[in-house]
Write a structure and sequence with these properties.
With 454 residues, the protein is mainly alpha-helical. It contains 18 helices and four strands. The chain folds into three domains: 14-99, Fumarase/aspartase (N-terminal domain) (Fumarase C, Chain B, domain 1); 110-199 and 222-350, Fumarase C, Chain A, domain 2 (Up-down Bundle), CATH 1.20.200; 353-453. β3 (267-268) and β4 form a beta hairpin. It binds arginine (ARG). GO terms for molecular function: argininosuccinate lyase activity.
């Protein structure tokens, strides 16, 4: 037959623009070309479509790739537009490209193909952030700083212990993202609309050509399933939430003069000449909002969707793209801010005893001498009250001990022992339980963190 007779498949009427995802599909333009190529190569190998027709289709796809997404004809989505462009070049036989498949399995394959790349990028950013944390931590194993609960001075710790607390969480984020990657990395192609196909296709072959680890077996699950998107977005939102905590800590520490953020990660005010603001980290903190919003938008769109394909899915996907972009960028920026920040050792050491943060250590010393911990706690609570939140002197401690215990403090612990407990550096050094802030305990955590990154 000569000439191509096609009705305009994409009518859409007045809702044409509303229905089209072509612009948003730029993100999966390259993926769709890869999927088209793998599919037609398999069709040729299986003798479903003649080799020469497949050759022409492949040549047309090369031209379409070179012309770029912007040169595509109008269409309901990128899949339809590319098919139209193939038919424009090859003629009616170009329509054989869509044998034994549907846009439903096609789009699911494209999303997984592209998301794999994006997940790898987010994993790389997360690992780079962990490297930055470990590098700075290694320099500050002995740098004592105040540790907080309820934003109030609680117990002295070290900069390394603080930074590695985030590294540990980001290591778990990495594992979650890798897990999401594994389940994303399966091919739905060949599921067709949802009900398979009578053609003698080879799903394993297209999966292999596209670099997937295998297929999503059930064809209805393959077309309809988007839990891989939910899982990936949830892993990113979880990561962004912890990241926002790190950003918040750094904003607060910068405010107290406990950390000096590099100028390139700070900004000035357009009106107040004296200001240097931690805007970059405030934006990192805000990205958790984007990520949780993306996850919420995605899950809400997916909720209640019946099998097998519903067009709602077209609006689900962009939530995941927005999330992965925002979170990967924020992670990379946070890595730079961490790597370039300075920790002023003297200021931190001076601040680390503020608010009688060594009280627990004195109570521990009493408890080690046989006083029940609850009683020791009472002694130190009374001392804290008497010293009005500051660190009490030895005379005050002794007087309070006399009131509560009926005996001098120094019948239980030596003066030297009490003085050591009141010294933030020695206080930290004494807390050498596994995972604690003492330098040798942190050295073990550093080793584990380094081993986890390799
Ligand atoms: N663009 C659609 C999506 O992103 C795929 C089109 C499938 N359309 C359909 N009517 N079955 O989900």
């Amino acid at each position: 037959r000569s000439g191509v007779v096609r009705r305009d498949r994409f009518s859409g009427g007045p809702a044409r623009g509303f229905m089209s995802s072509l612009a948003a599909d730029e993100r999966i333009f390259a993926a769709d070309l890869a999927v088209d190529r793998a599919h037609v190569v398999m069709l040729a190998e299986q003798d479903v479509v003649d080799d020469d027709v497949v050759g022409e289709i492949l040549a047309a796809l090369d031209e379409i790739e070179a012309a770029g997404h912007g040169a595509l004809p109008e269409g309901e989505d990128v899949h339809e537009a590319i098919e139209t462009a193939v038919v424009e070049r090859v003629g009616e036989d170009g329509g054989k490209m869509h044998t034994a498949r549907s846009r439903n399995d096609e789009v699911a394959t494209c999303i997984r193909h592209r998301l794999r790349e994006d997940l790898l990028e987010s994993i790389e950013a997360t690992v780079a952030l962990r490297e930055a944390l470990v590098e700075v931590a290694a320099e500050h194993v002995d740098t004592v700083m105040p540790g907080y609960t309820h934003l109030q001075p609680a117990q002295p710790t070290t900069v390394a212990h603080f930074l590695l607390s985030y590294e540990s969480a980001f290591a778990r984020d990495t594992a979650r993202l890798l897990d999401a990657y594994d389940r994303t990395n399966r091919s739905p192609l060949g599921a067709a609309a949802f009900a398979g196909t009578p053609f003698d296709i080879d799903r394993e072959r297209t999966a292999e050509l596209l670099g997937f680890d295998g297929v999503v077996a059930n064809s209805m699950d393959a077309s309809a399933g988007r839990d891989f998107l939910a899982e990936s977005t949830a892993a990113l939102a979880t990561h962004a939430t912890t990241l926002s905590g790190l950003a918040e800590d750094l904003v607060i520490f910068a405010n107290k003069g406990h950390v000096d953020l590099a100028d390139e990660y700070s900004s000035t005010s357009s009106i107040m000449p004296q200001k240097v603001n931690p805007d970059t980290l405030e934006l990192v903190r805000a990205v958790a909002g984007d990520a949780v919003g993306g996850l919420s938008g995605l899950l809400t769109t997916l909720k209640g969707l019946p099998r097998a394909y519903n067009r709602d899915l077209q609006r689900a996907t962009p939530h995941a793209w927005e999330t992965v972009d925002a979170v990967s960028e924020a992670t990379a920026v946070a890595a730079g801010a961490v790597a370039t920040a300075e920790w002023p050792e003297e200021t931190l050491e001076a601040a680390s005893g503020e608010g009688f943060s060594t009280a627990t250590g004195v109570a521990d010393a009493l408890a080690m001498a046989g006083v029940p911990f609850r009683t020791a706690h009472e002694v130190l609570a009374a001392a804290a009250e008497r010293a009005d939140g500051e660190t009490p002197d030895l005379a005050t401690l002794d007087a309070v001990a006399g009131d509560v215990l009926g005996e001098s403090l120094f019948t239980y612990v030596s003066r030297e022992r009490v003085e050591a407990a009141l010294d933030p550096v020695q206080s930290v050094a004494s807390r050498d339980s596994a995972g604690g802030p003492a330098p040798e305990a942190v050295a073990a955590q550093l080793d584990d963190a380094e081993a986890g990154i390799d």
